[in-house]
Amino acid sequence: MSDSIHFEQLRQEAKSILKLCRAMDTGALARMRAQLPRLSAFGDAEMADQIKLADVQHALARELGYSNWAEVKRRDEPLARFLAAVRGGALDSAEAELKRFPDLVRESIHAACSVGYPDAIRYHLKRNGSLLTAEEVGWQPLLYVCG
Q1: DSSP reduced 3-state for 97
Q2: What does the alpha-carbon distance between residue 47 and residue 126 come to, in Å, rounded to a whole number?
Q3: CB count, 10 Å around CB of 4?
């Protein structure tokens, strides 16, 4: 699977599937039942009434190999991808994310430290001095400097 899951497309797909389920589309209902066994207890009409957007999102996440929708969402966040690339030593991936999203250093002290951007680091520390020791996936900013 590519690094960039098109999250907005997935959100739209989830809404479309929900509409299909509510219209009692048998294919859409079967697709949801395959990922969400708790829905198997319902007949088509009852399931069409009971299913929620969160159910469809969860089913899509499971189809993609994720345990839940939040995991899919995190996967598509540029900052999360960038910092994961830094932690993993994937320089090419980190550079690619930074080229696509150059404002990452303004979003996060961890990103600013990763690229050695002192003005952005000062900006973050002026706003909140406790960021000096704030952890991102177990790494403090200094570790991102080293990464």
Answers
A1: helix
A2: 53
A3: 13
- Domain residues for the domain of 55 are 7-75
Nearest-angstrom CA–CA distance, 83 and 118:
18
Neighbours of 63 (CB within 10 A): 11
Segment 114-138, tens digit of pLDDT: 999 999 999 999 999 999 999 988 8
Angle at 73 between CA 67 and CA 74, to 5 degrees: 90
The rounded radius of gyration (Å) of the Cα atoms in the chain is: 20
Task: Break the chain down into helix, strand, coil percent, rounded to 5.
Answer: 75, 0, 25
Please report whether residue 95 resides in a domain.
yes
The reply to whether 102 falls in a domain is yes
